[in-house]
Amino acid sequence: GERASRFGVSEDTVRRDLRELAKAGQLRRVYGGAVTLAPFAAATISQRSSHAVEEKLRLAKAAVGVLVAGQTLFIDGGTTNEAIARAIPRDIELTVATNSLGVATALADLPLVELIVLGGRYVRDLGTCVGGDTLTAVAQLGADLFFLGSCGLDASRGVTAFDSAEAEVKRAMAKNSAGIVIAATNDKLATAAPYRVAAPDAIRHLVVERTAPAAILADFQRQGAEIRFA
């Protein structure tokens, strides 16, 4: 196919190399091709908290620029979403529902934020609550925006996650939201994890670093995402 002709090797060689990369955990084989495996497959939230700290702070400042007073938000887990929660101004009135302990802690002292903590089974490595109780709570709410923490983000595969229970909560939040906001460092772009969360055309705002590849961003723009640079 295309890869074989591009590199001047046989299709069998390409298939063998892709199998080896998939075995090594560097690619995920999907129908019609291969997608780079999203970073930090086995990393806990505490381990991820020291990665790309400055980049996440810049993304967070840009991401809160989409907020309008009076909105209701879902914010789920992840170190970038925790940075976003810390960047929310003290003078904006919002209702925020979250299943993330870190996000809830960051918002607890904001005087104009009505905070709804979505309980359930707490998973320490994720820093979030998941399971039936969480899903029941999400089903009772509707949000203007969902700040979705993505493990993988690809213009054809959409938003993906590594944990099936976490992905289920993310899907429920996406279903009950009018729009999705994702802030992603460059290493998340054009990558995929095993569990699907949302289609690429469900993303309303995509907040990225200024060095994000233009071709990747163009693919998201074609599907309706507004690109914001940090």
Molecular structure report:
This protein is an alpha/beta fold and 230 residues long. The chain folds into two domains: 1-37, no CATH class; 38-229, 3-Layer(aba) Sandwich (Rossmann fold). Helices cover 34% and strands 26% of the residues. It is built from nine helices and 15 strands. A seven-stranded parallel β-sheet has the order 5-4-3-8-11-14-15, sandwiched between helices. A three-stranded mixed β-sheet has the order 1-2-12. Strands 9-10-13 form a three-stranded antiparallel β-sheet. The N and C termini lie far apart (38 Å). The model is unreliable at 2-7 and 28-32 (pLDDT under 50).
Roughly how many Å is the radius of gyration?
18 Å
Give the name of the CATH architecture of the largest domain.
3-Layer(aba) Sandwich
What is the mean predicted local confidence, pLDDT? 87
Largest sheet: 7 strands, parallel
Summarize the entry for a quick read.
By secondary structure, the protein is α/β, with parallel strands linked by helices.
What is the strand and helix layout of this fold?
Layout: H1 2-7, H2 11-23, E1 27-30, E2 33-37, H3 45-48, H4 53-63, E3 72-75, H5 79-87, E4 94-98, H6 101-107, E5 113-117, E6 121-123, E7 128-130, H7 132-139, E8 145-147, E9 152-154, E10 158-161, H8 164-175, E11 180-184, E12 191-192, E13 195-198, E14 203-208, H9 214-222, E15 226-229
Parallel strand pairs: 2-12, 3-4, 3-8, 4-5, 8-11, 11-14, 14-15
Antiparallel strand pairs: 1-2, 6-7, 9-10, 10-13
Helix pairs in contact: 4-5, 5-6, 7-8
